[in-house]
Amino acid sequence: MEKIIEILLGDIYIQSFILGLTLAAFFYKLSGRTKLNEPPLVYYRFPIIGHTWSFLTDCEKLICESREKYGETFSLYVFGQIMTVVGKETTHEVLRKDQDFSFREGFINQVPTHLIFKHVTIPEKNAKIVRDYVAGKLKHLISRLQKNILKAMDLYIGECVGKFLSLQHSGFSCNI
């Protein structure tokens, strides 16, 4: 095995072939990015670094120049990943179409908590529980909360109307 590695590293033609094959695979991966309905990828000079340096040093300038040249929606190659920037006209579309643009799936892909913690529940179920059970009883809960706040204010602060005039002269106000 050591003999094979020594032969591979000793021959300049084999080294050149391996380096060329690696670069070809890298460029093929980057060139296969633009598909039919995807936003344009902003041109960058350095293949591995991409837009990372200009993103870190002057992010606002990078986004403004890219917006002028490519429009409201475009993609940047930052930190080895392709980041899509969406303009203000299409932001509502991204937020409204949660089947196409799932923030939960993106978070699960980036931070796989279900692999680390086995007891973590599925967030879709939590959202459904909140929507079905809490949102329906929200008016009742808010009225109870208001009553408890008013009771606590009367108990700990006292009658606020009588103190309003005296506190206003000393620089404090109790606006409730």
Automatic annotation (TrEMBL):
<feature type="transmembrane region" description="Helical">
    <location>
        <begin position="12"/>
        <end position="30"/>
    </location>
</feature>
<comment type="similarity">
    <text>Belongs to the cytochrome P450 family.</text>
</comment>
<dbReference type="GO" id="GO:0008395">
    <property type="term" value="F:steroid hydroxylase activity"/>
</dbReference>
<dbReference type="GO" id="GO:0005506">
    <property type="term" value="F:iron ion binding"/>
</dbReference>
<dbReference type="InterPro" id="IPR006130">
    <property type="entry name" value="Asp/Orn_carbamoylTrfase"/>
</dbReference>
<keyword id="KW-0408">Iron</keyword>
<dbReference type="InterPro" id="IPR050529">
    <property type="entry name" value="CYP450_sterol_14alpha_dmase"/>
</dbReference>
<dbReference type="GO" id="GO:0016743">
    <property type="term" value="F:carboxyl- or carbamoyltransferase activity"/>
</dbReference>
<keyword id="KW-0812">Transmembrane</keyword>
<dbReference type="InterPro" id="IPR002403">
    <property type="entry name" value="Cyt_P450_E_grp-IV"/>
</dbReference>
<keyword id="KW-1133">Transmembrane helix</keyword>
<dbReference type="InterPro" id="IPR036396">
    <property type="entry name" value="Cyt_P450_sf"/>
</dbReference>
<dbReference type="GO" id="GO:0016705">
    <property type="term" value="F:oxidoreductase activity, acting on paired donors, with incorporation or reduction of molecular oxygen"/>
</dbReference>
<dbReference type="GO" id="GO:0020037">
    <property type="term" value="F:heme binding"/>
</dbReference>
<dbReference type="GO" id="GO:0006520">
    <property type="term" value="P:amino acid metabolic process"/>
</dbReference>
<keyword id="KW-0479">Metal-binding</keyword>
<keyword id="KW-0472">Membrane</keyword>
<keyword id="KW-0349">Heme</keyword>
<protein>
    <submittedName>
        <fullName>Cytochrome P450</fullName>
    </submittedName>
</protein>
<dbReference type="GO" id="GO:0016597">
    <property type="term" value="F:amino acid binding"/>
</dbReference>
